Amino acid sequence: MKKISRLDVFIAGVVSIIVLFSYKGLFQTFFQQDEWLTQGAVFSGGIFAELKQYSLVDIIAGAGRPFGSLINYILFFLFPFRIDIFVWFAIIVHIINCLILYVLLVQITKKRLIASIGTFVFALNFTASQSVSWIASIFTTLPAGTCVFLSLMLFYQYLKFGKFRFLLGAQILAIISYLFKESSIFLFFLFPVVHMMCNTRKISLSRLCTLYSLSLLYACFVVVVRMRYVMGLGQSAGAFVSNSSSMWQKMLTHIFLYPILSLPQIYMPQQIMIAVSGWFQKINYGGLQGFSSSQRGVETIVSDFTSFILAMVILFSVYLVGEHTKQYKKLLYFIVFFIFLSFIPFAILDKGSAYLDSRYFYIGSAGGSFLLALIVDRVLSGFQKANAVIYRFMIAVSVFLLCGFLFKNYQWISRDIRSMVVVSDERKYILSEIRRFAPDTTEKPVYFITGNNNGYYGIPEVKIPFQQGIGYTLMVWNYSFGHIPAALLRETFLWRIREEGYREINGKGFGYFHSLSTLQTYVRNGHIDISQVIAFYYNTDTKLITDITEETRKSIVQQ
Amino acid sequence: MMKRINVPVLASLVFLIGISCYGVFSLYFLNDEWLRLGYVLNKGVFSLVNDHISIIEILSGKERVLGGILNNLFLYFFQDNTVPLALFDILVHLLNSYLVYVLILEITGKKTVAFLTACIFSIPSPAHQALSWFAATIQTIGGMTFVLLSVYYVITGIKRKNIYRSITGWGLAYIAFLFKESCFFVFPLLLILPFIFSQNKLKVRHRYILLFFLVSIFSVYKILAFFGLSTGTSMTRESFLIILRLLTNMVFYPFISLGQFFIPFRFMLRFSVEFGGFYYSFLKGATESNRAASVVVADLLSALASAGILLSVLYLYMQKKQYRKHILIFFLWYILSFIPMAVFLPERNTSYLESRYLYFPYVSVAFLISLILIECKEKIYLLIRNKKVAFIGLFLITVIFLFKQITLMQREIRVNSMYGSDIRHIMELIRSTYPFLPDKPIFFVEGDRNYYFSKINLPFQIGTGYMLSMVFRNRPQIPKEIMVMNYFRKQEDFGYMEFEDKGYGYFGNREELVRFFAKNSGISTNQIVGMYYYGYTDTLVDETEAIRDFVEKERIKQVP
Predict the structure, then answer these.
(1) A250, B229, B236, B375: which has the fewest Cβ within 10 Å?
(2) Is the pTM of this model over 0.90?
(3) How far is B76 from chain A (nearest CA, A)?
């Protein structure tokens, strides 16, 4: 854009306000899960805690997501437990991304209508909202998105003007984006392919290799250095295909299926998809023996099937629109290609439900928003040629539908954040009460926490609503007291959700138990002195936590 | 029609049908055929036209009057002698295949396309039931003959501006409809043809508007009548669901089935379970619900295949301008031919529709395959620039494809033939073991092997009680009511019935048998005909005396 008009400023303002308004509830949330791990690592190892694990070559090849990790750890180091700072970061970067996308769309289409629709849909996309609402992902996904959009912008400038410096900039930004998050790796493939597609003159392979030598060499370097990590061979988490005996077959299947199945999911939140699938199941599979509508597995498969059919409908619509608007045909196909490619890096993951994790949709949702905006514009322009009355009517219908769609997305985001706030409040209350009851804990505190809940998240041992090891959480929370051995945090002692135990290092110790009998065994064996024990009881119904230290100590002694 | 028969084409079709379908001569009645046979033998050739059906209903397609009567003729005169039916199978399918050749030649004017389509259609492995299941043969294959003739006559009528040919075509369509209700799809198809073939579209629109409304009103009437819905009935949630299901099926069935034409049922059955466990880790292990879920997985895989094929068709449509019209006709043929299935078959048992239903759409699939094959040939030519090599390429691809179809067809017929020969054998064995029956016989069957369901000890696909009445259908002791009313037709049916001076009973469980005799002291144990079938060694033991003694002793214990 050569000149920023008042309209652009107005749109930027509206987008900023909408994003701020939609995600304002995040200020009342708290750490969910992985944030505790990061905070613990920062406490124990400083801002380089993550990167220290890798060699320089590995880091250059993207191990530990160096840029994302640095920002993440610096902010956690400077502002421990300051959720407001992190939320501001998330909201500001998301707004910046929306604005970059707006500029990019204006540059490509020369139409502010398309750019505005695309930007608004992207800004309020619920399916990808975890990218903004989950602190653990904001330092990687969002800045990576910024770099991807900037890189695309430069790449577009290169295609338009043919100046190599733009292409070089695009490639550098692609590499930076990759260093924020590995999923940006698809750009290395996207650029040369699009170059070939857009160039009317035939380009030789050697010329193409020369032009893209930076990104290609870097990609080769990454493959050589990080093959083990890219394939997840070094990962023990269950979500990686590498944990399966048929890794390659799974990856190939995912490469084919994930992009197709995820395409309609950009526009449709999981709960709506499940409802639609429920109907679909009732209509098509109601009569099949052995079907249970409540079965989660069936729900997932039917959702996948519904997603596939919707994807076919979307692709056919793209084809129809493309055939009728030659001018935008290539652009439409490019967007679909971009969306598909953005999901391919996640082929190394096994998804647990019909949807990939929400944050993985962030880049794809930008393409999805652009696609929707372009289709709406093309459909409207088709009616413009036909009849003035119908055209106006169609504009009204489109405005109504788009506003409805945006409003529903806003509602879903707000509802999701509200539910997070409820859980966060509960967690904050529990932690503050624990600190209130035991303000300056003993030298070697040993926590025993029980309650009347059958077990949060279906795990009987979890009596308070924390998604990660309660022992680790308490260590991080009480780290400022100075009694917690840093080595325990480094070794992620008590991080696993069912983990309990006690350890001492250099005269400092910490323990957590959810089982009284195990605690008794430790006391009987002389590992723990009874005076170290601090016990709490959490009543799920009244949401009250009570100090039961004395009773617990007595019952341990009596037995 | 063509003035001369194309002998090489006919000879090729004879060869292909002969090699793929010769097994039909080994087929035997499996299930529904027995129910029909029992009915026809006692009620006569015109037995389908019962007293409660009006002439209007018959003319509106109820009871498939023409197909039904022709079917009855075979059953009445040849009973369970299946050779005449097999001959009908082969000959009429040959006729249909040749008609496909004639029709495609008339539409496209391309002999290669017509020949390839006819060859592919002549081996209908995805629709094998149309030939391998005698309960469906006459109506399906017979109906198809008239469908093909009707389309041919209407097209030639439009092309030659001959109204009599068009009228004949519509008449033939009506005959097809009276053969099998599924042929109804031909009416909307015939309505569309003039819009595609006629030069003066506007004139056509005026002329057909009345016909269009008639066909539409008749369609709505048929659908509503089928579901028992009338203007008097209020819209319930259930009826809303039915209509929703019907509308969904109209789109869903053709879409899902397109891929299934290319993926054999038995392969998909295994593959979907494997893929389910592979892609969805929670599906590992074989619980009943997982098997059910694998149906959805099979649908998903079929949908993927369908999408690929649709893409190919779209590509052909875009690339081959000379075939656009023809692709459109057969695409419509394909979609429309599923509409009756969407109505008559609201729910499926497996991911696949019953294969006999796929006989009608298989014409269009065969046409599309032949176009794809031709396209392959052209691509080879573009690559090599040698006509001979391109032709050899086409020939090889076609031969490989046809060979696969032939083996699949043979396998499907062989499976049904094995089931049939089991039935034929056990019926003969029972007849020879029991040359004499007591009055008012009560059959009791035990065995060491279960067939299809638990406690079904004889290899019958429908109720053992009914099938035993068919085994002895010519004996005077068997009451004809059993056959007319199809009593004991379900596998779980058992009991005893008396009709004037005759009686008939069947039991498959000793406790039930004893309980029955304990309750009915007036019934003699001499009526019992006991048998034990060792399924694994194929030995039938007459245990009549042992069962009679057993029942005699046990009934005394149970009498209060």
Answers:
(1) B236
(2) no
(3) 36
